[in-house]
Each structure stands twice: as structure tokens, then as C-alpha cells.
Amino acid sequence: MRTTRLNMHDAKTHLSRYLSGMQVDDRLIICNRHRPVAEVRLVAPAGGQQRRIGVAKGEFQVPTAFFEPLPEAVIAAFEGRT
Predict the structure, then answer these.
(1) For the chain, which domains are there?
(2) 76 Cβ partners below 8 Å, 6+ apart?
(3) What is the pLDDT along the chain (82 residues), one digit of tens a residue?
């Protein structure tokens, strides 16, 4: 793991450059007047295989009521009018 300390000005000016050079286990420590205030890490890449479209075709049916408008009481609750 590699740790890099930056002051606030460098982070604002060159953040994209620092991020492009990072590995998954590296971290950036952003400092304000030599005091650490934030830590930046890369998000681990998503693992596994990509999902196939249509893999559950025929497994379930959407009821026709799904496409009907919601009752007014439910809409009012979503909008905070209750």
C-alpha cells in the first residue's frame, strides 16, 4: 500500500492526475495546514460476471394492475400531503 500526502491546494489542482496513478490499495491523505482531514481510496472494481439480459424470461408475469394509476392516497403519501 502506498500513501501519498497532499495539501488542499495540490488536491484541488491535480486530483485527476493523482487518481489516475493510483492502484487499488493506495490512498491519498489530504491535509489542511499539515493536518490530515480526508482520505481518498479507489473503489474496488466490481467482481463477477456481467449479467445476461433476458436470463429470467418466462420466470414470472407482471400483473395488469401494475400498469394502472396509483390510488390518490398513495400519491399523496409520496408527496407528503398526508
Answers:
(1) 3-41 (3.40.1620)
(2) 82
(3) 899 999 999 999 999 999 998 988 899 999 999 999 999 998 877 777 777 888 888 998 989 999 999 999 999 999 998 7
Cell 390510488 -> residue: 71
Q: What is the dihedral of CA 66, 69, 71, 74, to 10 degrees?
A: 80
pTM here is 0.53
Cα distance between residue 80 and residue 82, in whole Å: 6
What's the number of CA atoms in the CB half-sphere (13 Å) around residue 28?
A: 21
